[in-house]
Amino acid sequence: MSSSLSCARLTAVTVAAVVIQITGLALFVFGFFPVKPTLSGVSGVESFHPPWDAADDGFISPSFSADELKSLYQDLSDVPAQFDRLILMVIDGLPAEFVLGKNGQPPPQEFVEAMPYTQSLMWTGEAIGYHAVASPPTVTMPRLKALVSGAIGGFLDVAFNFNTQAFLDDNILGQLLRVGFKMLMFGDETWLKLFPESFARCDGVSSFYVKDTVQVDLNVSRHLDEELYKEDWDAMILHYLGLDHIGHIGGRNSDLMIPKLREMDQIIKTIHLSTQEFEVNDHKRTLMLVVSDHGMTYSGNHGGSSFEETDTLALFVGPKSSGTRYGSATSSINQVDIPPTLALLFGVPIPKNNVGIVIADVLKSLSGGQQLRALELNSWQLLRLLQAQLPGLSCGNSLCVEYSDYQATQTGKSSVDADAVFCSSYCKAHLLHRSWKSKKVTWSATSEDFTVTQLAYYEFIRTASDWLSHKASDKCAVCLTFGVAAMLVSCLIVFHLLFKLCRHITFGATRCQGEKIHWHLDDYFSLAVILALVASMGSSSMVEEEQYIWHFFTSSMSLVLLRSAAQQLPANTFTEHSSIIFRQFSSIILLLVFGRILRGWHQGGVNWTYLPDISKWLEQAGDSYIHNIQLASGFLAISLSISALFLLRKRRKFVLLIGLIYIASALLVMSHLIEHTANKLAATGYGATLMAQIIYTIISISTAGIVLLVPWLMPIQISGSYSTASNSKLHEKPPKCSLLGLRDSIYITGWAYISFWCLLQLVLQQAINSFPMLLVFMQILASLLYYSTSKSRHKPWVEIATLYYLGMTGHFSLGNSNTLATIDVAGAFIGISEHSTLLSGTLMFMITYASPFTVLFSLVMYISVKNGSLDLDGAQSASNENVLMEMLCFPCLVPLGLNSVVLTAYTIVLLAMRNHLFIWSVFSPKYLYVCATTICIYLGIFIVAATTVYIYSVINFRTKKLSRSQ
């Protein structure tokens, strides 16, 4: 054993590598995903002047009252306000195709019948409906920001969705407040966090307790009868959450979806009839805008960039149209087009950071001149944003003359080309507008000149909007460089340690000695898996369908192991070896069978989720079948856990005590499954929540108690030949029986980790995932059984790498993917009576990474069941420090090394793909998963290391104490 590779040195270098990796990751994340730059301040009177002749911002001073400011805006705008009151109704998670249909076809008949009043509004021309395309990430908080500001937020807003802060950017609500609007809000409390102290009356409800599908909406609707007929407010926001919660629990096809749509339709009818009565009596015009913040996938989730998730509704009830057929109602706008349209409808400035386009059909009631003025104001506002991004851009009146004959054929890559294209496009519209105004006799919205001018304005506005929407934020080159360099250094350090360990450490009967290392097929294949994964990262399609890579390679790895076992047949035909051969072949066959079932359970990924799979068949069969499978899975998992515990044939009484503790927890879990999970919505009452909390408490106490007390209570004895040994000798030759107690203690502790973890997952996972979780558990047990009998056939890093691959395959087998839409939000609130960002986030993390954590916990058990790792005879010549290092080095360094390769490689891929079309929809969500997996690995190896060191220290302490007493 080389003195240069002591346990203390190995630990220090490993910790340093982790710290370097964390530092590099932090630098890269904050360099690649910076807070999106915005223009400070708010739009004022300058927004009604061209950018090259803007009024002084200081012109708006506190001396102006709200009414005076409103009048000033109206005088400068030349676009009269069309409405006096606004009712913004947000139906969280409502896909537009439920109301407007898809591809020119009407929605399914059951949806049409569920919302008859809403459909009648469109058919009679009292409402105009649009498919509003939302930008990813499709979660509530960034979508609400886009709805009120017209700006596209940064990608990391998905992380801030769970910890909303006050929104300080210019927005339509702030503009309405400045002109004296009195606003009310009832519904999702996210509005209260984004706009504190903005509402005269409000009643917020938590958006994160997704088990509530009824009361969360009743708390909103109960205010309508009183508030709709009051005259002391100007804007009312209603945010209904029940439909989104139904999606999370049961998906689009939930039995509760149609009743919820009927409820929403009745609310729309109530509001619309009251506004009509109010307009007759008070002569105030009311605009009702029904929107959704995002859509949902067929499984009911959201967060990604698929059509189902980005297809949101924008229904304007108030502007008159000629009636809407489904073929024309499917016209598409962007979600960010809503704020500038609202600003012009209510006579206030367009928010400063808006990248949206005014919606032409909503403004058709205006005269031709007013419509072109609205487009002019929109173009000026976008010009200001362009000037902030392109400091050299200048499109004044003098330059418009120079650019009047310029025809841009394509958008150039340099800022100079962009300047020319934008100025040419704007100046063309500006000159046509000026020409149109000079022809007073043709001031008609139907004239050819008007149409040409309108199209010219829209050409410029769309070009500017698209450029601003897709332009990547400036990235910190220094942060990116040092971040990637730090991760590369960390990765090299970890693999240097692994290389030295392979040269110098005897791990069981496998000894690697420099040039004498012989590589076999399983060694090459283990490396090929990770290299193939790295090679696939540059393809967006392979990132979306990563589960196929893992399923293929894990099944292939099982075949490689089967080949390795078959090669031993000629040399092991004696009777005494027959049982070992049978266990090895049985283990590998089980791995293959379980892997194939897992492969067919969920049709994961993005592109082929509609294809049939086992989970869809069971859902079609009915909830009772799923519930029965869940109960059977729980019973089998408990039985296997007890069987694995009693494989420890020694310490019968001690093992029996541990088994009784586990059985008590298991019975509680099974009772919960029987009583509260037969129906998807059953686990919403106080009894179910209390039961889940009791289970959490008992499992936590039982696991912690076993981990902490087993090494103290495990019976140990010292052989007579060592009982008189001096203290100095104890540091050189660990007593044989103490090592036996150490191995048994580690075995029981590892068993406790994975057994209680599986119990917890039975409570947290969706019922449909109970059987896949059981199969993952059985694969791990089969692998441990195989490795316990394989002796020196495989190198330890190959065995641990194979377990790691099984964990990642199980991750995708549970329905996870590289899109944010597959995160199980509903399960994150089991046992939580009120919203807690920390608790729900922790549960969400535990559900998502159930399989990788199971594998990491099993490494504690692996240390024990791998006989060679604690070889009693070989340990006699090893010091305490070296024995500890032999136990921990590979179980900790191999997962860390594999993850370091993936993290570093994908960081480089993300940097290379920074201008790719799918950078925000595919590559960036995948990077968030890679970062989360890194956290999972850190936590897992920390638990493995801390547990093993603790048990070893306690056993060593007890051994010394016992030797002194003898």
TrEMBL record:
Indicate the transmembrane segments per the record: 12-33, 480-502, 523-542, 548-566, 578-598, 625-647, 654-674, 694-714, 746-764, 770-787, 843-863, 883-906, 927-952
Output the InterPro entries linked to this UniProt entry: Alkaline_phosphatase_core_sf, Phosphodiest/P_Trfase, PIG-G_N, PIGG/GPI7, PIGG/GPI7_C
- Pathway(s) where this gene product acts: Glycolipid biosynthesis; glycosylphosphatidylinositol-anchor biosynthesis
Q: Does the keyword Transmembrane apply?
A: yes
> GO BP, one example?
GPI anchor biosynthetic process
Q: Where is the GPI ethanolamine phosphate transferase 2 C-terminal domain?
A: 524-951
Q: Mostly located where?
A: endoplasmic reticulum
SUPFAM superfamilies assigned: Alkaline phosphatase-like
Q: Which GO terms describe its cellular component?
A: endoplasmic reticulum membrane
Q: Name one GO molecular function term.
A: CP2 mannose-ethanolamine phosphotransferase activity
Q: Which UniProt keywords apply?
A: Endoplasmic reticulum, Glycoprotein, GPI-anchor biosynthesis, Membrane, Transferase, Transmembrane, Transmembrane helix
Q: Which domain of life is it from?
A: Eukaryota
The protein's topology relative to the membrane is: Multi-pass membrane protein
CDD domains, sorted: GPI_EPT_2
Q: Is the rRNA-binding keyword given for this protein?
A: no
Where can this protein be found? Endoplasmic reticulum membrane
Q: Which Pfam families match?
A: Phosphodiest (PF01663), PIGO_PIGG (PF19316)
Recorded family membership: Belongs to the PIGG/PIGN/PIGO family. PIGG subfamily.
Protein name listed in UniProt: GPI ethanolamine phosphate transferase 2 C-terminal domain-containing protein
What is the organism of origin for this protein? Kalanchoe fedtschenkoi (Lavender scallops)
Q: What's the source species' lineage?
A: Eukaryota, Viridiplantae, Streptophyta, Embryophyta, Tracheophyta
